[in-house]
Amino acid sequence: MKDSVLRPRRTGVDSVLKTHSSELFIKREDRIFFSQGTKIRKLLGIYRSLESKLRSGEIQNIILQGNLHSNAILAGSLFFKFVDVPTKILGYSRDPKLITPASIISKRFSELQLYPTRKEWEKAVEDTRKSLLTNQALIPEFLFTSFALEGLTSIWDEIDHSQYDRIVLDVGSGLTWLSGILWGKLPITGICLGLEKKKFGPWMESNLSSLRLSKLNLPYESLIDPQEKLKANFSYGKKGNIWLEKSKDYQKRFGIYLEPIYGAKSISIIESMMEKRELEGRILYIYQGGILQGGVSSIL
Questions:
Q1: Which of 28, 70, 83, 119 has the highest Cβ tally under 10 A?
Q2: Domain range for residue 157?
Q3: What does each C-alpha distance from 72 to 6, 76, 115, 214, 253 come to in angstroms?
Q4: Could you tell me if 267 and 283 are in contact, meaning their C-beta atoms sit under 8 angstroms apart?
Q5: Separation of alpha carbons 161 and 228, rounded Å
Q6: What is the pLDDT of residues 118-172, one digit of tens each?
Q7: For residue 232, with 0-12 CB atoms within 10 Å meaning exposed, 13-18 middle and 19 or more buried, which class applies?
Q8: pTM for the whole thing?
Q9: What domain count does the chain have?
Protein backbone atom coordinates (compact mmCIF):
# COMPACT_ATOMS: atom_id res chain seq x y z
CA MET A 1 0.00 0.00 0.00
CA LYS A 2 2.89 2.37 0.76
CA ASP A 3 4.16 2.03 -2.82
CA SER A 4 0.70 2.86 -4.19
CA VAL A 5 0.81 6.16 -2.31
CA LEU A 6 4.39 7.10 -3.16
CA ARG A 7 4.18 5.99 -6.80
CA PRO A 8 0.67 6.80 -8.05
CA ARG A 9 -0.19 5.69 -11.55
CA ARG A 10 -0.72 8.11 -14.40
CA THR A 11 -4.39 9.15 -14.47
CA GLY A 12 -6.44 8.71 -17.62
CA VAL A 13 -8.70 11.01 -19.59
CA ASP A 14 -12.33 10.33 -20.56
CA SER A 15 -14.30 12.08 -23.29
CA VAL A 16 -17.74 12.76 -21.80
CA LEU A 17 -19.59 15.42 -23.77
CA LYS A 18 -19.87 16.96 -27.22
CA THR A 19 -21.78 20.20 -27.74
CA HIS A 20 -21.84 22.15 -30.99
CA SER A 21 -18.26 21.80 -32.27
CA SER A 22 -16.75 21.48 -28.78
CA GLU A 23 -15.78 18.46 -26.70
CA LEU A 24 -15.28 18.02 -22.96
CA PHE A 25 -12.69 15.66 -21.51
CA ILE A 26 -12.17 14.80 -17.84
CA LYS A 27 -8.76 13.97 -16.37
CA ARG A 28 -9.46 11.37 -13.71
CA GLU A 29 -7.49 12.51 -10.67
CA ASP A 30 -10.25 10.84 -8.63
CA ARG A 31 -8.47 7.56 -9.37
CA ILE A 32 -5.50 8.41 -7.14
CA PHE A 33 -5.41 6.83 -3.65
CA PHE A 34 -8.93 6.83 -2.20
CA SER A 35 -9.90 9.56 -4.67
CA GLN A 36 -7.60 12.09 -3.00
CA GLY A 37 -6.30 13.23 -6.39
CA THR A 38 -4.29 16.42 -6.53
CA LYS A 39 -4.02 16.49 -2.73
CA ILE A 40 -1.81 13.39 -3.00
CA ARG A 41 0.39 15.09 -5.60
CA LYS A 42 0.80 18.01 -3.18
CA LEU A 43 1.55 15.68 -0.28
CA LEU A 44 4.10 13.79 -2.36
CA GLY A 45 5.92 17.06 -2.96
CA ILE A 46 5.93 17.76 0.77
CA TYR A 47 6.98 14.20 1.63
CA ARG A 48 9.89 14.24 -0.80
CA SER A 49 11.16 17.50 0.69
CA LEU A 50 11.24 15.80 4.11
CA GLU A 51 12.06 12.25 3.05
CA SER A 52 15.72 12.14 4.07
CA LYS A 53 14.92 13.56 7.52
CA LEU A 54 12.01 11.17 7.94
CA ARG A 55 14.18 8.18 7.01
CA SER A 56 16.96 9.24 9.37
CA GLY A 57 14.55 9.89 12.23
CA GLU A 58 15.45 13.56 12.38
CA ILE A 59 11.75 14.28 11.83
CA GLN A 60 9.39 11.92 13.64
CA ASN A 61 6.07 13.73 13.64
CA ILE A 62 4.03 15.75 11.13
CA ILE A 63 1.58 18.42 12.27
CA LEU A 64 -1.32 19.21 9.95
CA GLN A 65 -3.50 22.26 10.47
CA GLY A 66 -6.85 23.61 9.32
CA ASN A 67 -10.57 22.93 9.24
CA LEU A 68 -11.18 19.46 10.68
CA HIS A 69 -13.67 18.70 7.91
CA SER A 70 -11.52 19.75 4.97
CA ASN A 71 -10.15 17.63 2.14
CA ALA A 72 -6.61 18.70 3.03
CA ILE A 73 -6.90 17.29 6.56
CA LEU A 74 -8.55 14.11 5.28
CA ALA A 75 -5.91 13.54 2.60
CA GLY A 76 -3.04 14.37 4.95
CA SER A 77 -4.28 11.98 7.63
CA LEU A 78 -4.64 9.15 5.12
CA PHE A 79 -1.37 9.82 3.32
CA PHE A 80 0.88 9.97 6.37
CA LYS A 81 -0.84 6.95 7.94
CA PHE A 82 0.01 4.86 4.89
CA VAL A 83 3.63 6.05 4.76
CA ASP A 84 4.00 5.27 8.49
CA VAL A 85 4.54 8.81 9.73
CA PRO A 86 2.75 9.78 12.99
CA THR A 87 0.61 12.89 12.66
CA LYS A 88 -0.97 15.44 14.91
CA ILE A 89 -3.78 17.71 13.78
CA LEU A 90 -4.33 21.26 14.97
CA GLY A 91 -7.91 21.64 13.83
CA TYR A 92 -10.98 23.74 14.34
CA SER A 93 -14.68 23.02 13.98
CA ARG A 94 -17.42 25.47 14.82
CA ASP A 95 -19.90 22.62 15.20
CA PRO A 96 -18.70 20.06 17.76
CA LYS A 97 -21.46 17.64 16.71
CA LEU A 98 -20.60 17.63 13.01
CA ILE A 99 -19.29 14.25 11.85
CA THR A 100 -17.71 13.95 8.41
CA PRO A 101 -15.42 11.48 6.64
CA ALA A 102 -12.52 13.85 7.35
CA SER A 103 -13.25 14.06 11.07
CA ILE A 104 -13.71 10.29 11.38
CA ILE A 105 -10.45 9.49 9.60
CA SER A 106 -8.54 12.22 11.44
CA LYS A 107 -9.64 10.97 14.85
CA ARG A 108 -8.78 7.39 13.92
CA PHE A 109 -5.35 7.98 12.39
CA SER A 110 -4.01 11.11 14.11
CA GLU A 111 -3.61 12.80 17.45
CA LEU A 112 -6.22 15.57 17.44
CA GLN A 113 -6.11 18.96 19.13
CA LEU A 114 -9.42 20.67 18.34
CA TYR A 115 -10.59 24.27 18.82
CA PRO A 116 -14.15 25.67 18.59
CA THR A 117 -13.27 28.87 16.72
CA ARG A 118 -10.80 29.87 14.05
CA LYS A 119 -9.46 32.64 16.28
CA GLU A 120 -8.54 30.20 19.05
CA TRP A 121 -7.09 27.85 16.47
CA GLU A 122 -4.92 30.61 14.97
CA LYS A 123 -3.46 31.36 18.41
CA ALA A 124 -2.74 27.66 18.97
CA VAL A 125 -0.98 27.43 15.59
CA GLU A 126 1.15 30.47 16.40
CA ASP A 127 2.05 29.06 19.83
CA THR A 128 2.95 25.73 18.21
CA ARG A 129 5.11 27.45 15.61
CA LYS A 130 7.07 29.24 18.35
CA SER A 131 7.61 26.08 20.38
CA LEU A 132 8.02 23.58 17.54
CA LEU A 133 10.31 20.69 18.44
CA THR A 134 13.25 19.87 16.16
CA ASN A 135 11.75 16.46 15.36
CA GLN A 136 8.43 17.96 14.21
CA ALA A 137 7.35 19.49 10.89
CA LEU A 138 4.41 21.90 10.75
CA ILE A 139 2.57 21.80 7.41
CA PRO A 140 0.75 25.02 6.40
CA GLU A 141 -3.04 25.20 6.10
CA PHE A 142 -4.42 23.95 2.75
CA LEU A 143 -0.99 22.27 2.14
CA PHE A 144 -0.07 25.68 0.71
CA THR A 145 3.71 25.31 0.34
CA SER A 146 6.33 25.58 -2.38
CA PHE A 147 6.98 21.83 -2.02
CA ALA A 148 3.30 21.04 -2.67
CA LEU A 149 3.51 23.30 -5.72
CA GLU A 150 6.49 21.25 -6.94
CA GLY A 151 4.49 18.07 -6.39
CA LEU A 152 1.77 19.34 -8.72
CA THR A 153 4.14 19.57 -11.69
CA SER A 154 3.60 15.85 -12.28
CA ILE A 155 0.03 16.42 -13.41
CA TRP A 156 1.12 18.68 -16.26
CA ASP A 157 3.79 16.20 -17.32
CA GLU A 158 0.93 13.78 -18.07
CA ILE A 159 -0.97 16.19 -20.34
CA ASP A 160 -0.30 16.41 -24.08
CA HIS A 161 -1.06 20.09 -24.59
CA SER A 162 -1.42 19.62 -28.34
CA GLN A 163 -4.62 17.63 -27.72
CA TYR A 164 -6.56 20.43 -26.00
CA ASP A 165 -7.43 24.09 -26.36
CA ARG A 166 -8.09 24.94 -22.72
CA ILE A 167 -7.95 23.53 -19.21
CA VAL A 168 -10.67 24.14 -16.63
CA LEU A 169 -10.36 23.35 -12.93
CA ASP A 170 -11.89 24.15 -9.55
CA VAL A 171 -10.18 26.82 -7.47
CA GLY A 172 -10.02 26.19 -3.72
CA SER A 173 -6.73 27.41 -2.25
CA GLY A 174 -5.63 28.16 -5.81
CA LEU A 175 -2.43 26.12 -5.71
CA THR A 176 -3.40 23.80 -8.59
CA TRP A 177 -4.61 26.79 -10.62
CA LEU A 178 -1.31 28.58 -9.94
CA SER A 179 0.63 25.45 -10.92
CA GLY A 180 -1.20 25.38 -14.25
CA ILE A 181 -0.48 29.06 -14.86
CA LEU A 182 3.23 28.46 -14.22
CA TRP A 183 3.16 25.47 -16.60
CA GLY A 184 1.93 27.91 -19.21
CA LYS A 185 1.24 25.65 -22.19
CA LEU A 186 -2.54 26.16 -22.33
CA PRO A 187 -5.04 28.78 -21.16
CA ILE A 188 -6.29 27.91 -17.66
CA THR A 189 -9.82 28.77 -16.55
CA GLY A 190 -10.50 28.50 -12.83
CA ILE A 191 -13.94 28.21 -11.23
CA CYS A 192 -14.00 29.87 -7.79
CA LEU A 193 -15.73 27.34 -5.55
CA GLY A 194 -13.67 28.11 -2.44
CA LEU A 195 -13.22 31.81 -1.81
CA GLU A 196 -15.40 34.18 -3.79
CA LYS A 197 -13.69 35.55 -6.88
CA LYS A 198 -13.47 39.07 -5.44
CA LYS A 199 -11.72 37.73 -2.32
CA PHE A 200 -9.47 35.21 -4.03
CA GLY A 201 -7.07 37.67 -5.70
CA PRO A 202 -6.17 39.55 -2.50
CA TRP A 203 -5.83 36.26 -0.62
CA MET A 204 -3.49 34.81 -3.23
CA GLU A 205 -1.38 37.97 -3.40
CA SER A 206 -0.96 37.98 0.37
CA ASN A 207 0.17 34.34 0.37
CA LEU A 208 2.45 34.19 -2.69
CA SER A 209 5.53 35.05 -0.63
CA SER A 210 5.13 31.79 1.30
CA LEU A 211 5.71 29.94 -1.99
CA ARG A 212 9.05 31.69 -2.50
CA LEU A 213 7.92 33.06 -5.84
CA SER A 214 8.90 36.37 -7.33
CA LYS A 215 6.14 38.85 -8.13
CA LEU A 216 3.72 37.35 -10.63
CA ASN A 217 1.19 39.00 -12.89
CA LEU A 218 -1.56 36.42 -12.47
CA PRO A 219 -4.58 36.34 -14.83
CA TYR A 220 -7.33 36.78 -12.27
CA GLU A 221 -9.63 37.87 -15.10
CA SER A 222 -9.66 34.25 -16.30
CA LEU A 223 -11.38 33.15 -13.10
CA ILE A 224 -15.10 32.41 -13.14
CA ASP A 225 -17.59 33.54 -10.52
CA PRO A 226 -20.07 30.64 -10.52
CA GLN A 227 -22.95 32.91 -9.50
CA GLU A 228 -22.59 34.74 -12.80
CA LYS A 229 -23.07 31.51 -14.77
CA LEU A 230 -25.81 29.59 -12.94
CA LYS A 231 -28.56 30.56 -10.52
CA ALA A 232 -27.86 28.14 -7.67
CA ASN A 233 -26.35 27.95 -4.19
CA PHE A 234 -22.58 27.63 -4.57
CA SER A 235 -21.71 28.27 -0.91
CA TYR A 236 -18.55 26.40 0.04
CA GLY A 237 -19.31 22.87 1.12
CA LYS A 238 -23.05 23.20 0.54
CA LYS A 239 -24.49 20.37 -1.48
CA GLY A 240 -28.25 20.57 -1.33
CA ASN A 241 -30.57 18.40 -3.36
CA ILE A 242 -29.74 20.08 -6.66
CA TRP A 243 -26.08 18.98 -6.51
CA LEU A 244 -26.89 15.50 -5.24
CA GLU A 245 -29.24 15.12 -8.19
CA LYS A 246 -26.63 16.54 -10.56
CA SER A 247 -24.11 13.97 -9.29
CA LYS A 248 -26.56 11.16 -9.97
CA ASP A 249 -27.39 12.56 -13.39
CA TYR A 250 -23.73 12.82 -14.42
CA GLN A 251 -23.03 9.32 -13.17
CA LYS A 252 -25.78 8.00 -15.44
CA ARG A 253 -24.65 10.09 -18.41
CA PHE A 254 -20.87 9.83 -18.10
CA GLY A 255 -20.30 6.76 -15.93
CA ILE A 256 -18.31 8.94 -13.53
CA TYR A 257 -19.30 9.91 -9.99
CA LEU A 258 -18.69 13.65 -9.74
CA GLU A 259 -18.88 14.57 -6.07
CA PRO A 260 -21.39 17.36 -5.31
CA ILE A 261 -19.13 19.80 -3.45
CA TYR A 262 -16.84 20.62 -6.38
CA GLY A 263 -17.10 18.28 -9.35
CA ALA A 264 -20.82 18.39 -10.12
CA LYS A 265 -20.87 22.17 -9.73
CA SER A 266 -17.93 22.71 -12.08
CA ILE A 267 -19.26 20.38 -14.76
CA SER A 268 -22.66 22.10 -14.60
CA ILE A 269 -20.99 25.45 -15.23
CA ILE A 270 -18.79 24.08 -18.01
CA GLU A 271 -21.73 22.43 -19.75
CA SER A 272 -23.78 25.64 -19.56
CA MET A 273 -20.90 27.69 -20.97
CA MET A 274 -20.35 25.19 -23.78
CA GLU A 275 -24.02 25.35 -24.73
CA LYS A 276 -23.78 29.16 -24.86
CA ARG A 277 -20.48 28.94 -26.80
CA GLU A 278 -18.68 30.77 -23.99
CA LEU A 279 -16.25 27.84 -23.86
CA GLU A 280 -15.29 26.30 -27.18
CA GLY A 281 -12.86 23.77 -28.56
CA ARG A 282 -11.35 20.74 -26.84
CA ILE A 283 -11.71 21.38 -23.12
CA LEU A 284 -9.94 19.35 -20.43
CA TYR A 285 -11.45 19.47 -16.95
CA ILE A 286 -9.12 18.42 -14.14
CA TYR A 287 -11.33 16.42 -11.77
CA GLN A 288 -9.32 16.74 -8.57
CA GLY A 289 -11.02 13.96 -6.61
CA GLY A 290 -12.54 14.10 -3.14
CA ILE A 291 -15.18 11.39 -3.39
CA LEU A 292 -14.74 10.40 0.27
CA GLN A 293 -16.23 13.75 1.23
CA GLY A 294 -19.32 13.08 -0.88
CA GLY A 295 -21.34 12.42 2.26
CA VAL A 296 -20.65 15.84 3.76
CA SER A 297 -23.67 18.11 4.08
CA SER A 298 -21.68 21.14 5.14
CA ILE A 299 -18.17 22.34 5.80
CA LEU A 300 -18.34 25.00 8.46
A1: 70
A2: 2-37+146-295
A3: 17, 6, 17, 26, 29
A4: no
A5: 29
A6: 999 999 999 999 999 999 999 999 999 999 999 999 999 999 999 999 999 999 9
A7: middle
A8: 0.94
A9: 2
Tell me the sheet residues that pair with 136.
61
Residues 164, 159: Cα–Cα separation, whole Å: 9
Q: Please tell me the distance from the alpha carbon of residue 101 to that of residue 205, in angstroms, as a whole number.
A: 32
User: Model confidence over 182-229: pLDDT tens digits?
Assistant: 999 999 999 999 999 999 999 999 999 999 887 899 999 999 999 999
Q: Is residue 300 part of a domain?
A: no
- Domain assignment present for residue 254? The answer is yes
SS (H, E, C) the chain: CHHHHHCCCCCCEEEEEEECCEEEEEEEHHHCCCCCHHHHHHHHHHHHHHHHHHHHCCCCEEEEEEECCCHHHHHHHHHHHHCCCCEEEEEECCCCCCCCHHHHHHHHHCEEEEECCHHHHHHHHHHHHHCCCCCEEECCHHHCCHHHHHHCHHHHHCCCHHHCCEEEEEECCCHHHHHHHHHCCCCEEEEECCCCHHHHHHHHHHHHHHHCCCCCCCCHHHEECHHHCCCCCCCCCCCHHHHHHHHHHHHHHHCCCCCCCCHHHHHHHHHHHHHCCCCCCEEEEEECCCHHHHHCCCCC
What whole-number distance in Å separates Cα of residue 66 and Cα of residue 202? 20
The answer to whether the CB of 289 falls within 8 A of the CB of 43 is no
**Could you tell me the CATH number of the domain that includes residue 178?**
3.40.50.1100
For residues 146 and 291, what is the distance between their CA atoms, to the nearest angstrom? 26
